[in-house]
Amino acid sequence: MSQVILSARGIKKTFGNQDVLRGIDFDVHQGEVLAIIGSSGSGKSTLLRCLNRLETVDSGTVMFHGVNLQENSKTANEARKKLGMVFQQFNLFSNLNILQNCMLGPEKVNKLERQAARETALRYLTDVGMAAYVEAKPLQLSGGQQQRAAIARALALEPEVMLFDEPTSALDPELVGEVLDVIRQLAKAGRTMVIVTHEMQVALELADTVLFMDSGLVVEQGPPELVFNEPKEARTAAFLARYTEARLGSPQRE
Question: CB of 204 within 8 A of CB of 228?
């Protein structure tokens, strides 16, 4: 078993009177793809945002190579730079072209010289198939192209772990495949990734571990073939049955 590099223990988060996360524990190993699945409102995206302190937890710890990422310290701030984030909405700066969007992080966060930042951005834009669009503004591109550029932007920061928050949920169905192909390439390259997704095929095909959440709790986790084919918990089985029914009865995604 490879080294645990990211570990969550006892994560709790409340918004108003709603307990969104009710004590979450899990580990992420070097080179592992962890897929987090569950119904809307189960706390998946909140959990992902808590990992890199985009949301502060009410209690619990998120440890990355022995550093508590929930602390507001110079050490924790430096460590959080090693977690790249890809959002549902692409969050690209509309006034900048794609190359400029991808150069910002290397220049501002990693303090690279402009030419080095440009070379880094171009390398990752090429990797995601966006080299031909470096001069385009975000609104000139399709949703799939924008999301691929957003992935390149995150990769340009040279993160150790990639966090994906429903990376295909804002896309038209015909554009989903091109983004999933990029994620497949990252998985094959051994990237450590945590993916919140409604795309069950992604979890089944790419994940080393699947974590099923319901009502702010981790109900079940394990290898995808066991979680999908031999779920131990009734809530897991019910969720997967709804997904199967939706897939068979409609072309829409769960």
Answer: yes
Q: Tell me the pairing of strands 33-37 and 209-214.
A: parallel
Distance CA 237, CA 243 (A): 10
In tens, the pLDDT along 160-193 reads: 999 999 998 888 888 899 999 999 999 999 999 9
Please state whether beta strands 4-15 and 59-64 pair in parallel, antiparallel, or not at all (unpaired): antiparallel
Using CA atoms, how far residue 206 sits from 124, 188, 200, in Å, is: 21, 9, 10
User: What pLDDT score was predicted for residue 247?
Assistant: 59
Pairing label, strands 33-37, 59-64: unpaired
Closest to 170 in 3D by CA, of 191, 148, 193: 148
Contacts of 58 (CB under 8 A, 6+ apart): 12, 13, 14
Ramachandran angles phi, psi of 192, nearest 5°: -80, 125
Do the beta carbons of residue 199 and residue 253 sit within 8 Å?
yes
232 CB neighbour count, 10 Å cutoff: 11
Q: Where are the alpha helices (DSSP H) in 69-223?
A: 74-80, 98-108, 114-127, 143-155, 173-188, 200-206
pLDDT band per the 50, 70, 90 thresholds, residue 96: very high
Residue 155: the pLDDT is 97
pLDDT confidence of residue 109: 94
Distance between CA atoms of residues 65 and 68, nearest Å: 9
Calculate helix-pair angle for 143-155, 98-108, nearest 10 degrees: 20
Q: What mean pLDDT, rounded, does the chain reach?
A: 93
Q: Is the pTM of this model over 0.85?
A: yes
Mean pLDDT of 97-106: 97
